[in-house]
Amino acid sequence: MRHFAIVGSGPAGFYTAEALDKAYGGEARIDILDRYPVPYGLIRFGVAPDHQSLKAVSKRYDKVAESAGVDFIGNVTVGRDISVAELLELYDAVILAVGAPHDRKLGIPGEDLPGVVGSAEFVGWYNGHPDFADLDPPLGGSHAAVIGNGNVALDCARILSKTRHEFEGSDIVGHALDALDGSAIRTVTILGRRGPHQIAMTPKELGELGHLEAASPVVEGADFPPLEADDALEPGHRKSITILRGFADTPPDDAKPKRMVFDFFAKPLRIEGDGKAEKIVVERTELDDKGAARGTGETYEVTASLIITAIGYSSSPIADVPFDGGKFVNEGGRIAERLYAVGWARRGPTGTIGTNRPDGYEVADLVAAAMPAGSSDGRAGAEGLKRLLESRGVMATDYDDWRKIEETEVANARAGSPREKFVRHEEWLRTLGR
Ligand code: NAP
Q1: Binding pocket residue ranges, ligand 1, CB within 6 Å
Q2: pLDDT by residue (tens digit) across 97-142?
Q3: Environment class of residue 325 by beta-carbon count within 10 Å: exposed (0-12), middle (13-18) or buried (19+)?
Q4: Exposure pattern of 120-136 as b/e (b: 16+ CB <10 Å)?
Q5: What does the pLDDT look like over 185-234, one tens digit per residue?
Q6: How much is the pTM?
Q7: Which residue's CA lies nearest to atom 3 of ligand 1?
Q8: Handedness of CA 210, 216, 220, 223 (dihedral sign)
Q9: Residue 102 Cα, ligand 1 centroid: separation in angstroms?
């Protein structure tokens, strides 16, 4: 019997567990560890609450968690409660699936002013992440800005622009729903340092902006290259650009009070304000011959009392594991003997949820090649882990505990919401009587 520990219960962790379970056909015990008593990582805390069809992938992960060879062990922080070296003593292989939970910094003056928040913080706030329950983003001004031209920037801008009614059926947390309902924001400027052809937004997500109840997208036709230039684009990307061109061709709907303004070729230089963010000073850019943004020297100001940076994420370093500043140093998923990384901890923060499936299967193949099914080194696995955690006073939780939390969240749901998520660690533990 082989014993594997997967650290992190998001998509990458669950696909890897599924792959290992299949590869070993019942001849392996797979423990998925998480620092929280609730699993699914990015699905619970990252995917937008109004994208329930994406969140439904957790049903597949439920099946994995329920399979005989797989266990969920929650409320355990690797690097604090137990080290990676200790896990490697207990398990045949350790796979880091810890994602990339930290916001990359812009590195410009004024970035630390109140009113400037990272997308991980803002997304965590509306998705019930306990670290950001107290974020209280300033929604009292009429102008907000989102920096970045990826899908996360779109998520943040859309959430700021939706009406209460449009959150029906979502699992947005109550505190965010109420705060957004009282928001005075009427204009959200989405700043891209390059042009429309360089966006990292996908068609479905962009298309949604054309159907919002109270907001219209505003796009400047002059920002586009000639139409023929679209022919060279990959079909999915071309579709996104066609949608953007459609926005540029459609005047904003006067019956809708809110605007989502795409400001391309706009590179933030600094954020200014009297004790809090009030505006971004931006430099107009053009593309150089390598397609990078080059400043033109022309500057202007964008008013915003809430500024969300959505420019990518980095992983958390873990003691004694080589780290390159954004992810763990690895070759094809292998960090060192018996130590692997998957998902964003391996590749950096790119790709969709589905990208993590082949990623997890590839690393499971590496593990299985190094330790063929049927072999054993007699390691202690979960039993040894639980003994060690108990001796340290760490109250690990299991999958049944999660189901109790989930049942309570579903029972607490507001009308029109699938659940009312707990937003504090203590609430999870209290629900379990601990
Ligand atoms: P992303 O797709 O990598 O986009 C990051 C954006 O930030 C890019 O537009 C980038 O511009 C810009 N940026 C980076 N550094 C900047 C700087 N210093 N100043 C100004 N702009 C800067 O990252 P993401 O939006 O965080 O998304 C992460 C991954 O999750 C992506 O693969 C995304 O598709 C996926 N995701 C998917 C969904 C969905 O399917 N519904 C939802 C959310 C996220 P440059 O191109 O110029 O570098």
Answers
A1: 106, 147-153, 155, 192-194, 198, 200, 202, 205, 310-312, 349-352
A2: 999 999 999 999 999 999 999 999 999 999 999 999 999 999 999 9
A3: exposed
A4: bbbbbbbbbbbebbebe
A5: 999 999 999 999 999 999 999 999 999 999 999 999 999 999 999 999 99
A6: 0.97
A7: 312
A8: negative
A9: 14
